[in-house]
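Hi,

I'm pasting everything inline rather than attaching a file, because the server keeps stripping attachments. The sequence lines come first, and each chain or strand is labelled.
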Amino acid sequence: MIKMDRRALLKRGGALAGMTAASAAFGTPLIAQTRTLRVGSYGGYFEDSFKEHVFPAFTAATGIEIESITQPNSSDWLVTMQQATAAGSVPSDLSLYARDALIKASRLGGLLKPLNMEMIPAAANLDPYFVFESEEGALGVGAMSWFTSMVINPNEVEAPATWADFWDSSRYESSLGLSKNFNGQLLDITAATFFDGEATFATDEGILAIIAKVAELKPNVALWWSAESQMEQAMKNGDVIGGQYYLDVSNLMASEGFPIRAVFPKEGNPQDYGSWCLSALSDKDAEAAEFINFSSDPATQALMSRRIGTAPLVAKEKTDLTDEEFAFVSGTPAIRPAYDAYLDKETFIKEAWDKMLAGA
Amino acid sequence: MSVVGHPEPAMAESPRKARADAVQAADDRGALGHRFLRAGVTTLIWCVVLFLCVVPLGLVVAISFGHKVEGAGWEWAFTFENYYRFLVGANWPAETTFLYLTQLYWSMRYAVVASVLAVATALPFTYLLTRQSRRAQARWLVFLLTSLSLSEVFIVMGWDIILSNNSGLPVLFSASGLTDWMKATGWFDVLRDWGLASPRNVKFKTSEFATVLTMSYLVWPYAVILLYPALSRLDPSMAEAARTMGARPWTVARTVILPAVRLPLMGTALLLFVFLLGGYVAVTVFADPAKQTTAVSVFEHVRGSTLNAPFGAAQSVILLVTAAAFLVLGQRLSRRSEGAS
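And the predicted assembly:
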């Protein structure tokens, strides 16, 4: 009975997430009894799945209560956290950042607190690439990953064996939906298909050559999408018959009967991943470490793959995922985005990309 | 008696005077209180204006001179690099691009075309509306006011569905055989050249057509509501007199009605223009990236992954100055035409 009341109170506190300061003061006497942690994740279906499947499992295992915080995405959230940190009170202890936002946060400085890796032994299950180390220490540990996949409408076209097919106007004139953002990974796809992959990003000439190659695609693009929902609608409505889209959502749409099929062409699909990062103003170091340790466990990685549709960051052999379950969320080969180039030359790449799109 | 009686009037007078003095003093005090109150309210209003308008605007201007740190955020500075970038690109002088000026051009082009279109179609509608019965007018106006509660997002979503391949006009085109007829007669290839068709069917998104259509739809109710007062004050006997003198309806419209509402017409168009200059949703959804506007670029730089608030701020300042310039220009023009008539 008492526990019920406490939950109700905590829930109400969560509803007032916007007024964090108020809810924090409100919750103080309760925290004295229960250990809590505020964890950010991308809103909507993603966050709902976390609240329904992952957080309860963690609370059951450790007794630490999780308050879920809605993040719009990682780059907007970084702006929010930057302003909140300057103001002295942050809405969340752990945030979920994609690698580019994580590197940016580490360069901005003063936003993230190094993690105590000794308390996170399960991180050894991950490829070292997914533990982000800076001079201060480990600032982020991989949470889950996601693929941007080649997608097609199987009622309209055959599955291409290579991304290069998208450049064929006789098949795809005014028919594709591709990401409008310069870092939407179309550059990485093009570099992997026609150039030397990430290495080509090393010089300005290389970058311009990749962008020039993307320009050849323009007659085949019906939609340059900036929001995920635009591409979803365009595939459902038949405004496009192919393009690039998130692997898990594509498979979800296909299982609901929509005419979409995710394809792994020979060059592969770009893989991006999210990391758990601790706010510099948080004093929940221990709770955060326990949560990240839990999240790095192969069983949790498999749970997330099944329930949320993210790709595991541990080898498939370590999990109990079936081939079918694994293919739903992951695949090979993976194209790794040229994160450093996107950051070191961001103004240059963005402007060259925008010029290409504008034909200016 | 008189001894007693003499001071009487004095005594009688002095309380009266005292009372009058007291009333006077109270009045003075009241006036003083009033003055204090009024000064307080005025100060409060100024503080609110300062806090809500001047400070944010000042911040935007201040940030527009900031310096972008590559791969991170930005820092306070006093540099014109963001303004230079707007005019000639980030790599100037090695390379010059008019990318951002082109975006400003599209901002203005959409706003001009859509506002003129809205005013031009709302004018005959509103004129006919003012000739209806009071009851009918009231119904129409209530309906139009209600439609204002639809946000830009809703309207764009609606048109998105109307123009979509499987749920909108293109289905109508292919189901009615219009697509096949156009393919047979060669019109289809013309549409493909204009970017209004894929090899399979007609396609209205992304296109300038869809963008302008949605934008003018968005402001159309405003146009009616803004034109209504002027048109309803128009004396019907003027048009009737012209008609009895043998003028055709078009001549009446051109020589009687239009000159009478010229000023409100211009004012409405200007207001809608400024309103549309910052349009965001319709442009992101319906315009090709080659034809996107400054407002979209501002958002991409401030909230996008580059965190380049200074360049976003500089673009906003330029957009603001452009809007102000158009307003001043419009006012000059209308004042001149006023002087001429």
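The mean pLDDT of chain A is 88.

If the labels don't parse on your end, tell me and I'll reformat.
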